[in-house]
Design the sequence.
DNA sequence: TCGGCCCTGGGG
DNA sequence: CCCCAGGGCCGA
């Protein structure tokens, strides 16, 4: 479900609702998410003030401040014991010692069907509700995920996690350096679809927007990266940016489960050119949209606007008829 | 590099 | 019943 535009929408929705709030409690369901929320984290997060909400690739990051920011800090400093579970004492690195820059944070991934929303406390509970963060304003932040491919985790050291994530994730699509991108694409025989889905090449693109970007660029998703000209790489880079930007403006695509942070569905599903439109007419030339399998995922493309481009004679001849209109 | 797997639910 | 689905991770 959630690719960059959807995650960005959730983040933008949540930010004003969460910033400055305090987590007053956490509760979880029995069924486990892909990366299980450890019970001890509930105590860690309780009492924390939410400083901000961010996104990195398809990950949601919720920055937490030091616990107990109340106007009357206990003299002993470490006096505050969390209620309930005293398991797994949190071992912070330099936390509280005057802002050493290693505050904790929550990291959430929505997987395929995750929903991360703020609702009034006590609102009817849907099924597949996995985590609930109670807030100090009679609202709660809920993580629901039917397929349970999503995750929520607590990290004591924000900087350490960011370093780790930056080692595993490529650049954000809006910061793509043309030279970097040309090199990443032209330096491999992997096809475009696989490249775009690889979070290490570009962070945040998923199946929907990979197909949409290839369409906008007029490139067949099965093309090997090394077969692209520098110019085609630039076109692809521009297309990625354009598609994601437009999708964010429409609050993402709701194929089935996706909703933003306030529970609203997206709108970009109505503007998709090829994704999910097998056999329907290409918006540009009316040719029936085709589906193929690349990198284990379905690729949707227009056989005419996105030719396989037989360079130097092999492969199939795509051009045959004179014209279609 | 790729297939399989992790899950649940919806559609044919 | 079977197959499919926005993602990521693991091992062959």
Sequence:
């Amino acid at each position: 479900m959630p690719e960059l535009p959807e995650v960005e929408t959730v983040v933008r929705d949540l930010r004003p609702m969460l910033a400055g709030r305090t987590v007053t409690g956490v509760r979880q369901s029995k069924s486990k998410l892909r990366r299980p929320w450890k019970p001890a984290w509930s105590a860690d997060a309780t009492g924390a003030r939410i400083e901000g909400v961010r996104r990195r690739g398809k990950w949601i990051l919720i920055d937490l401040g030091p616990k107990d920011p109340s106007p009357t800090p206990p003299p002993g400093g470490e006096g505050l014991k969390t209620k309930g579970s005293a398991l797994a004492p949190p071992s912070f690195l330099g936390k509280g010692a005057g802002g050493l820059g290693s505050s904790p944070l929550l990291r959430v991934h929505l997987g395929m069907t995750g929903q991360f929303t703020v609702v009034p406390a006590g609102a009817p509970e849907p099924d597949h509700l996995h985590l609930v963060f109670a807030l100090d304003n009679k609202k709660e932040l809920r993580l629901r995920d039917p397929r349970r491919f999503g995750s929520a985790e607590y990290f004591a050291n924000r900087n350490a996690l960011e370093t780790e994530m930056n080692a595993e994730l490529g650049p954000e699509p809006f910061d793509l350096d043309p030279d970097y991108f040309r090199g990443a694409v032209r330096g491999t025989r992997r096809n475009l679809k696989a490249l775009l889905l690889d979070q290490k090449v570009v962070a945040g693109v998923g199946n929907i927007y990979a197909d949409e970007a290839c369409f906008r660029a007029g490139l067949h998703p099965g093309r090997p990266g090394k077969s692209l000209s520098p110019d085609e790489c630039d076109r692809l880079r521009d297309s990625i940016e354009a598609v994601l930007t437009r999708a964010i403006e429409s609050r993402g695509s709701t194929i089935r489960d996706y909703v933003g942070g306030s529970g609203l569905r997206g709108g970009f599903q109505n503007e998709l050119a090829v994704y999910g439109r097998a056999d329907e007419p290409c918006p540009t030339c009316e040719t029936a949209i085709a589906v193929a399998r690349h990198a284990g995922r379905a690729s949707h493309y227009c056989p005419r606007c996105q030719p396989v481009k037989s360079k130097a004679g092999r492969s199939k001849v795509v051009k045959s008829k004179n014209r279609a209109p």
Observations:
- Residues 34, 111-113, 128, 145-149, 190, 194, 256-257, 295-296 of chain A lie near DNA strand B (CB under 10 Å from a C1').
- The mean pLDDT of chain A is 88.
- Chain A has seven helices and ten strands.
